[in-house]
Amino acid sequence: MLNVVVLISGGGSNLKALLEAAADPAYPARIVAVGADTDAAGLAHAEAAGVPSFIVRPGDHGSREEWGRAFASAIREHLPRGSENSEGPGDPEGAAGSDEGLVVSAGLMRILPADFVREFSPRLINTHPALLPLYPGAHAVRDALAAGATETGVTVHVIDEGVDTGPVLRQARVEIIPGEPEEELHERIKQLERPLLVQTVRDIALGELSLR
Fold first, then answer.
1. Is residue 27 part of a domain?
2. 190-202 per-position pLDDT tens digit
3. Annotated binding site for (6R)-10-formyltetrahydrofolate: which residue ranges?
4. Which pTM does this prediction carry?
5. Which residues cross the membrane (predicted)?
6. Is 186 a catalytic site residue?
7. b vs e for 166-175, b when ≥16 Cβ sit within 10 Å of the residue's Cβ?
8. Active-site residue, from 45, 61, 78, 128
9. Interatomic CA distance for residues 29 and 47, integer angstroms
10. pLDDT tens-digit profile of 164-186?
11. How many domains does the structure of the chain reveal?
């Protein structure tokens, strides 16, 4: 069983999808905690599911790096090194047996400090509303429309020290409808994003997808 900590900043629709999947005993991962950088509305999903949560606010720390260290420490309270994560021994290729668990950035709207990334990566993944390496950054949907693209999509990728530059794990494509507003396109992307993330976490837990 793969232990997962989910990080959010907003409504937590991806978190909700993961919690619903993990409620099935056949799903090979469990959400052990939810972390946020603010009073995110999505924390209500964790509370409803009986999953512990924590908030580490950047404003309570003297620097981005200090915040990152505090955030990492809070995660390690729920995902300690050497904790039992599955029936098997640790797997250096990133399968379910690894004793490092998995950290999922599911709508955390903040660039993580390099020290934080180095501590958890490659067992640190993110979703992005574009077909990376196209349209990285905070305005991916808007950028795809501005470029006149005919399709875009969603990517689940490993977080590295760059901005949306880590190895791609899974992608799903979305056709862009001419004249479609940004908000409607983003919502259609989200409809694919949730099941893609659930499937990706499952594949990691079962050792069917390597993180290295």
1. yes
2. 999 999 999 999 9
3. 64, 109-112, 126
4. 0.91
5. none
6. no
7. beebbbbebe
8. 128
9. 18
10. 999 999 999 999 999 999 999 99
11. 1
